[in-house]
TrEMBL record:
Pfam families found in the cross-reference section: Hemerythrin
Residues reported to bind Fe cation 1: H19, H59, E63, D124
Listed GO MF terms: iron ion binding; oxygen carrier activity
Species for this entry: Thermovenabulum gondwanense
Protein name: Bacteriohemerythrin
Binding site for Fe cation 2: E63, H78, H82, H119, D124
Superkingdom, natural source: Bacteria
Gene3D superfamilies: Hemerythrin-like
Chain coiled-coil ranges: none
InterPro entries cross-referenced by the UniProt entry: Bacteriohemerythrin-like, Haemerythrin_Fe_BS, Hemerythrin, Hemerythrin-like, Hemerythrin-like_sf, Hemerythrin_metal-bd
Function description: Oxygen-binding protein. May be involved in a storage mechanism or for delivery to oxygen-requiring enzymes. The oxygen-binding site contains two iron atoms.
Family label: Belongs to the hemerythrin family.
Domain Hemerythrin-like: 11-127
Alphabetical keyword list: Iron, Metal-binding, Oxygen transport, Transport
Amino acid sequence: MIKWKDDYKVGIYEIDNQHRRLFEIAEDTYNLLKNEFILDKYDKIIELISELKDYAKYHFKSEEEYMEKIGYKRLLSHKVEHKDFIEKIDSIDIFKIDQNQEAYVTELLDFIVNWISNHILEKDKKIISE
């Protein structure tokens, strides 16, 4: 499982703290996937999706406001990536989750981990370096 480490710091205290929360949501998703005692995970999956979406909106707004404040030249392309993230979460068909809960938890976890690896390490790090 992906764990927070200093490599993920972008050097902006507020944003780094918000990124840590995304790691916590990924950890919660991983724990749900591995929990063999919860047979019906539907409600927990819905909670995680909702939490991820709500927190991402909060974080993206905060990050975009910071980028705007410093005149970050890649703000528009960054906003598009944020929009794509929310659209991906919105596209989850909650009515199909019940058919294969494990697959949906795995897909959600992969999505979060890939976002952390690709977006934070590649895109967000550029905020302070450019």
